[in-house]
Amino acid sequence: MTDIAKDECIFCRIVAGDIPAEVIHQDEEILAFRDNNAQAPTHILLIPREHVSSVAELDTSQESLAGRLLLGARSVAESEGLVASGYRLVVNHGADGGQSVGHLHLHLLGGRPLGWPPG
Ligand code: 5GP
Ligand code: ZN
After folding, report:
1. What is the torsion angle, in degrees rounded to the nearest 10, for the CA atoms of residue 46, residue 16, residue 22 and residue 88?
2. Nearest CA to ligand 1 atom 20
3. 7: confidence class by pLDDT, cuts 50, 70, 90
4. Collapsing DSSP states into helix, strand and coil, what is residue 90?
5. Ligand 1 binding pocket includes 19 (Cβ within 6 Å)
6. How far apart are the CA of 4 and the centre of ligand 2, in A?
7. pLDDT per residue over 49-98, tens digit each?
8. In this predicted structure, what is the pLDDT of residue 118?
9. Quick one: which of 50, 41, 30 has its CA closest to 106?
10. Is residue 105 flagged as an active site residue?
11. Dihedral of the CA atoms 69, 70, 71, 76 (nearest 10)?
12. Which ligand is nearest to the CA of 105?
């Protein structure tokens, strides 16, 4: 991706430290930070450091990155104390999925009964 596109991606800007975020966890491949419009008492986003626009753009060569995101979510859920009460992981894609930021992210939601199905 071009530097211009990267400059315009809000989550790439969070990775770069250009936009502040409450970071919960980071390693060489992923970053976890609190959603700034939380839909639950705990609402954390996990993203790859590298720009991947959507789950639909994940390549089979990125299997380990995909696993990192899932296992990262599991580990953050543990550190946030959500295992006993329960939590939900969500990945939105495209218009019907409600994706509003074009950088792959996994939502970790918990801290209240979330209901099903989602609206
Ligand atoms: P989506 O609708 O694409 O699945 O989720 C995008 C999420 O990113 C939303 O829940 C939204 O509140 C969150 N978000 C958008 N911009 C920012 C930001 O600048 N900082 C943080 N922390 N979260 C953001
Ligand atoms: Zn990005």
Report:
1. -10
2. 36
3. confident
4. strand
5. yes
6. 11
7. 999 999 999 999 999 999 999 999 999 999 999 999 999 999 999 999 99
8. 84
9. 30
10. yes
11. 80
12. 1
In CATH, 6-110 is 3.30.428.10: yes
Given 43, 51, 105, 107, the catalytic residue:
105
> Which residues lie closer than 8 Å to 4 by C-beta, 6 or more apart?
none
Residue pointed to by tokens 């295992």: 83
Tokens 């400059």 map to which residue?
A: 7
**Predicted local distance difference test score (pLDDT) of residue 5:** 63
pTM beyond cutoff 0.90: yes
What's the pLDDT band for 4 if we cut at 50, 70, 90?
A: low
- Nearest of 44, 78, 51, 77 to residue 65 by alpha carbon: 51
Q: Are 54 and 96 in contact (CB under 8 A)?
A: no
Give the E-state strand segments of 1-119 in sequence order. Answer: 23-26, 30-34, 42-48, 87-90, 106-110
Q: Which ligand is nearest to the CA of 106?
A: 1
Distance CA 95, CA 89 (A): 19
- pLDDT at residue 119, as a whole number: 76
